Structures are given as C-alpha cells and as structure tokens.
Amino acid sequence: MKSKTAPGFGFGLGFMGACFSSEQDKSINKFPGNDCRTSLSGRSDLRRMQSSGSTPLASKNVRDLRQSPGYCNVDIFTYEEMRLATKQFRPDLILGEGGFGIVYKGVIDSSVRTGYKSIQVAIKELNPEGFQGDREWLAEVNYLGQLSHPNLVKLIGYCCEDEHRLLVYEYLANGSLEKHLFRRVGCVLTWSRRMKIALDAAKGLAFLHGAERSIIYRDFKTSNILLDADFNAKLSDFGLAKDGPMGDQTHVSTRVMGTYGYAAPEYVMTGHLTARSDVYGFGVVLLEMLIGRRAMDKSRPSREHNLVEWARPLLNNNKKLLRILDPRIEGQYSVKTAMKVANLAYQCLSQNPKGRPLMSQVVEILENFQEKEQKSQHAIVHNGGESLTLYEVPKDSANNPQEKRNIVKSEVERKELHQRPTDSRTKTELPSETDQRGPPDSKSGEESG
Question: Where is the composition biased (Polar residues) (predicted)?
C-alpha cells in the first residue's frame, strides 16, 4: 500500500445508491465542513453490475449516502471502530506511509462490530496536511464503491467522521510489486510470476477502459500494483482516476498529474488524456519487470536515468536485449518468448498514441504467450544449482544445420554476457518516484483537473 505520489485534484465522479461496473461523469467541488459535501452535476451513463430498479438519484453528501441503499458490500465505519481495528493505530501495524498519510494493517471482527465476520484489512488514514484531500478520498470511495473486478483492490468500507477520512481495503499479504521487484536481496519474482502479474494488471486496465464510460487510471506504476498471498495482482489507489472521453471527444484535457517516468509523453506535453496514456504506463512497468530497473534511477549513468529513453531502442536488437534483461531471471525464459514480450513493451511505449495497442489486445497477447509457454517443448534442466534452458528449434530450421548452430551460438553469447561484471543495480534503492505537476491546460472550456 506504500505510495509517495502527490495525487492530483481533477476527476469526474458522483455517488450513487447502488453498485455499478462503470462510473458516471460528475464534477465535484469541495465545500467547507466535516460532512464531505459535494456539488454534483452531469448525467449518468452507468452500466449496472446487478439488475435492479431505476437508477437512484445521486447522493450530494455522505449523510445522503448513508440514508440511501448505498454501495453493495461497502460498509461505513465509525472512527472508534477504526481505532479498535488498528489497536489504537499502533505503530508496529504500519504497512506504509506517504504524502496521503499512513496505511495500517488491521482486523475487523466481532470485537470491532458485533456480528462482523473476522477479516484482515488495510486501513488508509488520510493526512489532512498531506497531498491528498477530500477529492481524492471521494474518488476512491466512488470508483471502488462502484467497480468490482478480480484485478482491482476491493474496498471494504470507509470512515468519514468529523475531520477523519479513512479507507478500508482488503489486505493483500505480499504488498506492492515495487517492493518485490526492486528489493535488494531475495527476489521471488520469477519470469512466469512476472508474466502472470503483467497479465493480471493488464486485465484490470482493460476492464476500466472497457466500461460503458471508460475510466482512465492515470497513475499506473509498480507501487500501485498490489499482490495477494498467491501473487495475484490488483490495481489500487484510484485518487487520480478520471472519466475518459465520450461521444465525439478524442481526449480529455486536464492538468498533468502522475509520476515522472510513467506518464505518456503526449499527456505531459499537452494535457490530453486518453486510454492510450494508460497503455504507455503499462509499457513502462512491463519494461521494469523485464529489466529489473526503476523507471527513473539517477544513481546510474546520466544516459540511463530514464529507463524508457535508454532501453526502448535496444528492445528490438536480440543481442542487446539479452544483455540488459534482469539477470535474476536468467535461464527461466526462452529467448523467443523474451523477444516477443520485449516487442510488446516496445509497442506500448510508442511515441505515437495510435501506435500503441489497446489494453484488450495486450491481454490477448499476454494470454497467448502464457498458453504457448505452458505448451512449449523447452524445459529447465537443473544440475548442481546451475540451470540450462533447452530452446525449442523452429520447425522451418529443424533440418538446417546452420540454424541449429546459430541457436547454440545465441545461447552461448547470452551466458557470456551474463557472466560479465554487473553494475550495482541491486545495491542501491532509490526513494519512490518524484511526482509531477503541470500547469492547467490553457484552452478555454477544458477541465482543470
């Protein structure tokens, strides 16, 4: 749950008294007071998760929300219940902290609320002095209260009492992808596990983009991808999420928010936001998983500070790609598959948004990779702690001695490259990424956030 992003203050949302699989276009303005009052305008074009009667009117504040049917399976907690769940916010239960506040591990059971089935939770307490405000808090309640998908973190409930703002999520035992991918020692992210995480995250984004009114996540990065006990990945932190374009609109114009290294170049330059902006962020994370480096790393030589600028030109070169792949997963993949995944990252990172695939296509591609990997003929032969990957010979080269020699040569080169001295990538871990803020788009009539 750890994150140090300074969230933005722009999105469209509204509270509805029922569960939905997409969300509506609403604008929010904060009013003084302790009851989270908001001003709502716009129309609803939601697609329901469950069939029921007519769409209820939008709730104007949390008090109205409590009196309405509410979100399905989202509970409203008192601050005292939050204190009990975290043992009075005990310091040793802190899971992480950042500009938003602090995240605690907690338990909600019958001692917290009579008759409540015991469940482990992660409780995020908003810091009133921090980067996030009521808008981001309300965005998370709104989006996660209405959305349900295996690859989105589940919102258990929330607390909005006096000045207190807390969110209660399902507890995900393995924390963030960032924590595991960039840990100094003992990395447990195998090649197959990384590919599964990439597929899970892609499914989460594809779900958001495929809603009746698309939702742009806007802050896709390793620290926002959480892992459960079985390393199933789920997207978290919807504070920057925003309604996508609708009708004849090609984009949404907004203030530039997010994290350096992950934001799409056209979004940074113009403030024009589309679903393809998320595809770029996905490409950055896929690249991080392939190479084992952070998107921004100033501890490296200057030309390698920005991972995409340094690595993208190398992704379509077999020899250079093998030289830069994460040595911690050496021998766990076929060169053929690694090349295909690298090519996918290359496409996602296209400077031209139209050159990037849709997330639904990314899901299809990754599923195809996974299926072929499971059915492939190569195997790992372990001998005294050493591993050798037996690569499948292409059908059209089965009877070609020269092709066979090239495959063997390629494998020998790969081994030699990884035997060379490595840099200190695992010795120095940087703080979380610097957040970026940009000026509002100057075009009249465009949204400010």
Answer: 49-58
For 177-419, CATH gives 1.10.510.10
| Binding residue numbers for ATP | 124
Q: Alpha-carbon distance 242 to 246, whole Å?
A: 12
Q: Which of 5-9, 315-319, 408-412 has the highest mean pLDDT?
A: 315-319
| Residue 219 annotated as catalytic | yes
Cβ 295 vs Cβ 433: under 8 Å: yes
Determine how β-strand 101-108 pairs with β-strand 119-126.
antiparallel
Spatial CA neighbour of 100 closest among 237, 305, 229, 244: 237
Q: What angle do CA 48, 143, 210 make, to 5 degrees?
A: 60
Which residues make up each annotated binding site?
124
**Beta bridge partner(s), residue 281:** none
d(CA 268, CA 263): 7
For the chain, domain boundaries: 1-171, 177-419
Q: Same topology for domains 1-171 and 177-419, yes or no?
A: no
Q: Over the range 186-225, which residues count as b (16 or more CB within 10 Å of their CB) and which as e?
A: eeebebebbbbbbbbbbbbbbbbbbbebbbbbbbbbbbbb
CA 51, 52, 55, 56 torsion-angle sign = negative
pLDDT at 127: 83
* CATH architecture, range 1-171: 2-Layer Sandwich (3.30)
Q: Which tens digits make up the pLDDT trace of 155-171?
A: 999 998 888 999 999 99
| Average pLDDT score over residue span 35-60 | 35
The whole-angstrom separation of Cα 332 and Cα 334 is 7
**CB–CB of 239/7 below 8 Å?**
yes
For residue 412, the SS3 value is helix
From the list 348, 129, 173, 146, the residue with the least C-alpha distance to 238 is: 146
Q: Pairing state of beta strands 94-98 and 101-108?
A: antiparallel
Are 242 and 213 contacting, i.e. CB atoms less than 8 angstroms apart?
no
pLDDT tens by residue, 219-275: 999 999 999 999 999 999 888 888 888 777 778 877 788 788 999 999 999 988 999
- Among candidate residues 134, 219, 278, 326, the one labeled active-site is 219
